[in-house]
Each structure stands twice: as C-alpha cells, then as structure tokens.
Amino acid sequence: MIGINAHDFLEVDRELSDEERAIRDAVRDYAGAELLPHVADWFDAGTLPDPRGLAKGLGKLGVFGMHLTGYGCAGTNAVSYGLACRELEAVDSGLRSFVSVQGSLAMTAVHRYGSPEQKDEWLPRMATGDALGCFGLTEPDSGSDPGSMRTRARRDGDDWVLDGTKMWITNGSVADVAIVWAATDEGIRGFLVPTSTPGFSANVIHKKLSLRASITSELVLDGVRLPGDAILPGAEGLKAPLSCLSEARYGIVWGVAGAARACLTASIDYAKHRVQFDRPIAGFQLTQAKLADMLVDVNHAMMTALRIGRLKDEGLATHAHVSFGKLANVRAAQRVAATARSIHGANGITLEYPVMRHMVNLETVATYEGTAEVHALTLGRALTGLDAFR
C-alpha cells in the first residue's frame, strides 16, 4: 500500500475524460507554479497585490466563464469547471473566489440575462481578464434573506437611479462593472453598473481574519444614474440572482474538496517527518486514526463533487443537489482542516504550512453563498415539501 494516492484513494479521477484530465493538469500546474509560491505572503498582507495581473494570467489560462459558450468563453462541461475550482482552492479559497465571482456570478448573470449588446460589450473582455466584474446582492442587513434588500432602483424619465449599500463583495474595489440587484416597483431587477459611474464607490473591508488573499468591499450607490438599457432584460425576480448563486455554489462543492486535499497531503508529509519520542508521529495510533478520518472525508468529498458534476452535465442537477454538495463538502473540509491543524501542533498556526490558512478560509466559505443552516433547510424542503424559512 506504500505510495498510494491518498487524496484520490478511490481513484475517482479515473472517471475523468482525457479532456477533463488535461484541464485539471493545466490548472494544477499553473496554480502550483504561479500562485502557490506567493499565496502565503498575499494572505499575510491581507490583499491581492496585483489583481489586474492575476486576472490577465487566469484569463490566458481560460478559467473565467469557462463553462459558458461563445464570447471568447471556453464552453467546457461542468465537471471541467469543477476541477478548475478544485485545483485553485487547493492553493487558496480566495483564488477560487476570484475566479468564481468573475465567471459564475458576474459573467453568468450577463450571459444568462443580458441583452445582446451587453453580452458583446462585457463578456469577451471579462473572459480574457481585461475587465473585472463583481456581484452586488448581499447587504449589511440582508444576507440569508436577499428578498429583504433595501437597495432601490427608481425610474426617472428614461433613466434608472440606484441608492443603497452592498456588503461583502469580492473584487468590489477593483471591478470595472458591478452586477447590482435592486428592488423596483416591478420587483427585484439586475443592473449593469460601470464602476466609474458618478455616485458609485467601493470601500475595501480590512481587518479580516479569513479569506485574506482576496479583496472584499462594501459598495455604496448614492444616486447612481444609469441609462434605461443598463437593466438586465432577462432578469426578473429573485430567481435570477439565486440561479447565479447556484452556479457559484457548485464551484464551492469542488473547491473545498481541493482545500481538504491540500490539508491531508500536508499532514501526511508532516507526520512522516515530525519526530517525537524517537519516532515519526505518523507511527502513533492516534495520528493514524486522524489521517484515516481525513482520508475518508477527502475522498467522500471528491465523489460527491464528481457525481453532482455529472448530474449537472446531464441536465439533472437541481439547486437541492448543489445544496447537498455544499453542506456536505464544506463540513468535511472543515473537519479535515481542523484535524490537520492538530497534527501540525504549534507549527500549524504559522503560514509556513497551509493548514491554518485553509482552516480559517473555510470559515468564510461555510458562510457565504448560503450558510449551513440555509442549505439544511433547502434539503428539508426538498424532503418534506414544506418551507421552514419563514
């Protein structure tokens, strides 16, 4: 059994096609060479020092909106996109978020609900990383209940005027365009807001203890005047932004499996080299029991991600399937990261090792794009037909 692939113990990746393996390897190689050597410093600094440069590199790699078709997007299947998320989050959750917000949220909103003119204007540049987007749904008092948003859009002649605040917006201060969701007299609608528009501002949120290799902002809209054609014509009601969130949540299902894999790999290596009581701690029963539990969680997460990906590619995945994946895989990744931290002992709290970084990042991932409670109630509704949200 020596030399087994611990992070793919059940050989889940054997189920991949040649094209899927090629995409997996391309993203893994890029992430290992261009991102991993720097991510601890970025995390320590609490920012991404060159988001434009990062975007250009990722755009050249082809991961922005890679699951979309046309407009310079790669048009891959859902499993390939998931694999890319897994390899990026194996480096850091903030990097997967950078790609997810661009592709699964902002680009998907334009691709799915935008006019032909909006698609032509924004999607090709966003696919290459020449333009960055963000997604403004969450508000200071409206997280799990986006329907209670206070941001308003009112008509003024042929224009729209937007007022409100959005919170916890990834890429907000570096974006060229914000997809902003607002309440109108006709219901919730989406708007394309160029960030250079007068009245729009973005304030970076500092002093974060999690997802530090990421830029998080507050968006303020103070009398932002937009032309009538700034509205996303196909987006009517709350189902539109929630459908985009489901795409991003799907990426999380895969991404956290990558974070868990990184923690397991680091723990095996550390345990085999850390000597206590005259032998490697990997030889102690308690350590082996921890590693065994981690192995099970990592490989269960991989199987869950692949199964939901296959269902998605067959057109059979529902939002409840995605909730199942996010709930199960985030919990598994959190268990793995916490156990990895214990195996590393005092060294586990330093950025010399990745485990504490992954552990605190997963605290954010567990909360955003649907808390564990929200996904549990989504599954409860699917099981019983009864809505327990209100």
Automatic annotation (TrEMBL):
It comes from Sphaerisporangium album. Residues 134-224 form the Acyl-CoA oxidase/dehydrogenase middle domain. Its cofactor is FAD. Pfam families: Acyl-CoA_dh_1, Acyl-CoA_dh_M, Acyl-CoA_dh_N. Keywords: FAD, Flavoprotein, Oxidoreductase, Transit peptide. This is glutaryl-CoA dehydrogenase (ETF). Signal peptide: none annotated. Its EC number is 1.3.8.6. Residues 17-130 form the Acyl-CoA dehydrogenase/oxidase N-terminal domain.
